[in-house]
Amino acid sequence: MSGNKVISSENLSLTFETNDGPVHALSDIDLKIDKGEFVSFIGPSGCGKTTFLRVIADLEKPTSGAITVNGMTPEEARMKRAYGYVFQAASLYLWRTIEKNIALPLEIMGYSKSEQQERVARTLELVDLTGFAKKYPWQLSGGMQQRASIARALAFDAELLLMDEPFGALDEIVRDHLNEQLLELWDRTNKTICFVTHSIPEAVYLSTKIVVMSPRPGRVTDVIESTLPKKRPLEIRESPEFLKIAHRVREGLRAGHSYEE
Questions:
Q1: Residues 6 or more apart from 88 whose CB is under 8 A from it?
Q2: pTM metric for this prediction
Q3: Which residues are paired to 224 by β-bridges?
Q4: Using one digit for the tens of pLDDT, what is the confidence trace for 94-142?
Q5: Does the residue 45 lie in any domain?
Q6: What's the Cα-to-Cα distance from 7 to each of 16, 36, 114, 193, 221, rounded to whole Å?
Q7: Of 7, 36, 71, 112, which shows the fewest CB atoms inside 10 Å?
Q8: Cα–Cα distance for residue pair 11/140, rounded to 1 Å
Q9: The domain that contains 213 carries what CATH number?
Q10: Which residues on adjacent β-strands are paired with residue 85?
């Protein structure tokens, strides 16, 4: 199950036991993600997008089926720090400067002070925040805080980046700008990115592959390979090719709803 496969899941299901009875969060997820892909997960609220990301990160355990991350179990991948995780909110410590926030995982992992400084400087440059190292989170805009959060996830150079609706709370203009920057970052670093979103244009603009999920129990209703070029100006969103893919995503979301509750 390894090779170039960064993530490989087979018949993966997850059921939460609650006081009101079982909740079937994921059902029979079969998915392969190759090195260097940008994969978006899209679907209605409660369809298991974030749950699947959390399974990859070993924050949730599947009830049945199998999953590997870089050929290892999610637990082994977590112990080897094989991924960075970017949450919906920037989750920065307000009392730490931006550089200290980014250095936090490096401190925990025991990197030397000089190595920490070198990596923080490099990742600040990657997310276009050079010059803001000594600022505190509250001195930065929401978009800049999210870029700092991405820098923290990149600081220890994990090959895999897990992003859970990182731009969902930002206004459209800022979001567009960060989408452009994220594509540039992905192009420069060759990371594998798993990205959860509610936005069809965002999913189509960013991804090499779009995974469309149905309402609970979360199932994969379609996997769409993007035919867009790797270099994507924002204007590409008006192109016939873009609109065609967006239409297929929309149809997949609609099909996911067309079954008896």
A1: 164, 165, 166, 168, 169
A2: 0.89
A3: 210
A4: 999 999 999 998 888 888 999 889 899 988 988 889 999 999 999 998 8
A5: yes
A6: 23, 11, 33, 11, 18
A7: 112
A8: 43
A9: 3.40.50
A10: 162
